[in-house]
Amino acid sequence: MSFSRQLLAATRLLVVMTVLLGVLYPAAVWAVGAVAVPGRAEGSLVTRDGEVVGSRLLGQQVEDPALFHSRPSTNAYAGDSSGGSNLAATAPDQVSAVEERRAAYATIAEGEPTADALTASASGLDPHISPEFARAQVARVARENGLERSEVQRLVEQYTQDRDFGFLGEPRVNVLELNLALTGMR
């Protein structure tokens, strides 16, 4: 077989595989996802009054003292650059970051800090916090919104999601959904 015939065959294979695996397969996966889990294939966008305010799948920076605060992020919640710091727990930069977060914790929550209040998730975009971290913020959120503590506590319990299928993962609270419900109470 001549070199030119081999080159032509390789080029055809490249074009066919590119179309098959680079266009048709991703389109089929997206289509199945759009049918099987509607909304998620579109980014699980959350709208309020017709305006997109976030995604159920991506954490957001929260600085308003009247709202529940999110888990720390190593990438400022930038969806285009997700990822953790990859620092060891004993790395000086990591120790310093945790100590800074521990000091800041006292201004947003009460009690002992939870792990998710001090450390970022592996993606840096986790939209959830633990129910314990949410409950630790109840007093501040109630005070800042002029609400009864029990009202805010009920809201946290209402928005606490159980483990997937009853055994996968941990109970969690989606901060965006919780804050939207909270602002609806004001």
Automatic annotation (TrEMBL):
Localisation per UniProt entry: Cell membrane
One GO term describing the cellular component: plasma membrane
Transport among keywords: yes
Pfam families reported for this sequence: KdpC
Region described as Disordered: 71-93
Entry superkingdom: Bacteria
Molecular function via GO: ATP binding; P-type potassium transmembrane transporter activity
Subunit field text: The system is composed of three essential subunits: KdpA, KdpB and KdpC.
Family: Belongs to the KdpC family.
Protein task: Part of the high-affinity ATP-driven potassium transport (or Kdp) system, which catalyzes the hydrolysis of ATP coupled with the electrogenic transport of potassium into the cytoplasm. This subunit acts as a catalytic chaperone that increases the ATP-binding affinity of the ATP-hydrolyzing subunit KdpB by the formation of a transient KdpB/KdpC/ATP ternary complex.
NCBIfam families the UniProt entry points to: kdpC, PRK00315.1
Name recorded for this polypeptide: Potassium-transporting ATPase KdpC subunit
